[in-house]
Amino acid sequence: MSERPPLTEGVYYILLSLYEPRHGYGIIQLTEEMTKGRVKLGAGTIYGAIKTLLDRGLIQPVDDDGRKKEYVITSEGKQMVEHEISRLMELFENGIRITRGDKID
C-alpha cells in the first residue's frame, strides 16, 4: 500500500459525517456534536474541503431532489478513514506505552 498523508482533523470529521448523506450545514452540526464543540468548521472551510474531496473521489453528491446538495462518502473515502484510524491507533498506543514506562521492543 502506498503511503497516505495524514488527514487533517477537519477532513477526518467531514468524512466521518458523510457515512450518511448530509449537506454542508449538517456536516458542521454533526462535527460540533461529535467533538462537543471543540472543532468548529466554517462554511468556507467546509465548501473548500467538499470540492477537494469530490475531486479526489472520496465523496460523491447524492441525487439532487431540489433540497440542499447532499454528499456521501465513497468506498475510497472509507478506505482513507480506516487507514487514518489505524494511524491514530498506533499513535495513541505508542503514547500510552511510553507514558506508562513500558519497554519498546
Automatic annotation (TrEMBL):
Source species, domain of life: Bacteria
InterPro entries attached to this UniProt entry: Metal_resp_DNA-bind_regulator, Tscrpt_reg_PadR_N, WH-like_DNA-bd_sf, WH_DNA-bd_sf
Domain Transcription regulator PadR N-terminal: 20-81
PANTHER family reported in the protein's UniProt record: PADR-FAMILY TRANSCRIPTIONAL REGULATOR (PTHR33169:SF13)
Name of this protein: PadR family transcriptional regulator
Species in which this protein is naturally found: Ureibacillus acetophenoni
